[in-house]
Amino acid sequence: MSYRIRLLVLLAFSFIAPVSADDKPAAKSADARKAALLKAGYTAVPLSDGPKRDLKFYVDGIVGAEKVRFLLDSGDMDSAEIELAVAKRLKLMLGEEVAGLGAGGKHIGRQVEFPSLTLGSFDAFKDWHRFGGVASDLTQSSNSPTGILGVAALDEWAAVVDYPNRTLYLRPYIATVWPRLAGKWTVASWQEEGQARKLDPKAPAAFEFVDRRFKLTDGGKTREYGIRLVPNDFEGASQVRLFDPKQERKPAPVTLASGVIKVKGDTMTACLALDAKKSKEPPMDFDAPKGSGYVLLELKRSNPVAPKIADPLREILVKAGYTAVPMEHDAAGLRVVKARLGRHMLRLVVDTGANISVFDTAGLSKWGAVWLGRVEGKSLGGSLQVEGVRLRGLTLGAYDTRRVLSGVYGGGIDLSQINKAMTQEKLQPIQGLLGNLDLLTNSAVIDFGTNTLYLRPFKETLWPQLEGKWVGVRYESDGRKGQYKPGDAAVEFKNGRIRFAAKDGAADWAFHLRHEGDRYWVELFDPDADELADGFSCPTNGAMRLNNGTLTLVMEKGKSRREPTEFAAPAGSGLLLVEYERAIDAAKLVGTWKWVVRKGADPSEIVFRKDGTVTITIMSKDVELALVGKYKVEGKKVVMIGEGRNYVYSVNKLTESELEWTPEEGMVTESYSRVQEK
Fold it and tell me: Are residues 349 and 294 in the same domain?
């Protein structure tokens, strides 16, 4: 029975909830990111959110005729797992048992071969003829996915996990490895079934990789093959399958030759069965013993110029304010970041299957953890008890989390059994897992192809959605509810800070944001405070959400300090809840606007001026009527001031070229286009 380690930890914390639809990155940054990856040969696959209090991400796929919802889990070392019941419906042959160790105990599965696999529009069988995985009982895991997409698949397809854009990017393995292979290689040594072959220095044997073709020159003759590649291990070796180029479009072309190759610098090592019919099995190791029918070759790059390995993301993301954190690619394929807490070094697995970060209880005391109480968690293998903890001062590479939050919140679990198993597999022990709560809060983009974790404070990602002035509409304070009048309350996000304004004054605060699914936790602190200081604290906390153009804040106030757990401010809570609507930019309103005429209606034109005057011109076949008056902007409303009465319009859209509003006394929305100044 083979043995695998699974690091899946699924913890149910009460503040976790689905992701808000208003959590959207700036379009320009997202578009540039997507365009660069598509150009590099990637396919964009949507990530969907889990059910309530889940904070995990899923990929919709199809295996055979069955729809499968795969949990994205870089802590699972397999390529993929599938629910045992689904495997039985597909009548898959169940192979050898596979034992895994999760945080909740032992987990057993059976090896299977997938008949086909698509993830979104990505076809896993397009560039290789088979895909293996594990069938197991996944009903124990939180919210019971019907599949798990593990790190071996993410590694093979050089996956990019884009948290802010909820997108998984995948590309065929050959597109990733090809730049290291491309060009001509000269054979320096040739062993055939353990016997060295003498080489002709005047006409040396050679390989050439060009235009997705493999050419073998030997004895003055050149044979050309179609080629397909798949990883052979986590150390850079690849399985190679060679076939007639005329069969390129076939899903399973007839194999003419096969083997394994690896490249290190300007040296290539290859073990091949050059005639598949004469070899019982394709070579899987770099050895060509007697009777095998294999050849073992060492080659040198003919033109030793370092290949240009494309990195489509680094420049774009660094320019957008991200910090690049290197990830270690361990022998099992797990991605590990080196972290620091004071003088202590930690190795944390980047685990997209864990909804929060967890840390080994063995080190929490010396790391200065603050204990927050016990919660119930779930993992493959069973349930487990988890200690809630807060750690301050965690740095990931050059990225200091103190600039994001006053502390990192997670769970403490006993990792001794997992580390024992890792040591037996000759892997270095770990001190924790970096989970989705922190990956979301730090706007993570995980690039498995370049082994880079990109991080940026979520506040910076959300800023384009927040920036500007918002006006108070409704409030609830200690159970009392009411409506605000124009000018009573406003909040403005400017220069990285937040300003609360009321009739009796204003207050400026610096702030942090933590992503908690459908809401964001807010920490307010003195703008002059040093975030990196040992005694740093946030005197006021609260929660924020964005939903359909409405900003809701619930904050602590007064002497009573009770952190909000929901968007309400009941009697005795000491909380204040305010709903805001975005204020329109009055300067953007200034200019001439022409009504986008409805059929049968008379055209009209409106001129707004900086001095607060307005001219409305109504035009018909017989007369042109000009009405002159004044206007004012109140939040998202435009008030036309008339003689004896005012006319109020709620603005739905205001851009450089479009104005759309709805009269309060009418249900018909009116649209205008800006008239460009001559």
Answer: no
